[in-house]
Design goal:
With 147 residues, this protein is mainly α. The chain has one domain: Orthogonal Bundle (Tetracycline Repressor, domain 2), CATH 1.10.357.10. α1 packs across α2, α1 crosses α4 and α4 packs across α6. The mean pLDDT is 81.
Length: 147
Amino acid sequence: MSASAGGRIPLNRARVLESAVAVADASGLEALSMRSLADTLGVVPMALYKHVANKDELIDGMIDVVVGEIAPPLTGIDWRVGVRTRILSARDALFTSARTPARDTAVDELSRGMLPLSPTVMVGREKDVGALKQWCRRLNECSTKRR
């Protein structure tokens, strides 16, 4: 990121969300507030509201950041390898070696099917469905050849 004329790195939604995940991972979700996040970023709390409307939107965005770390499904490979690779990527993104509040929140929302309907989540689901369709076609072709 390039610094602005004042020597500060410009604030944007991605930077706000990534910093929020880092604050929650380091200090716990309870310690995350708009004020603590603003302090971390070196801005006034009101500056954050240009990028997120409120704490609920902030948390949805944080979940999106964590879910976005899951590698997209691989296509053109054996379905067993594809499913296993996707699951291992999700495990790596959601269950890092050190369990963290931001990742626990994402896991809780994922397990309840309550992920925000963000572009990252929707694209991931779309890619999952596309890969599953491809894998199922291959599986049907394989089972048809065996008969």
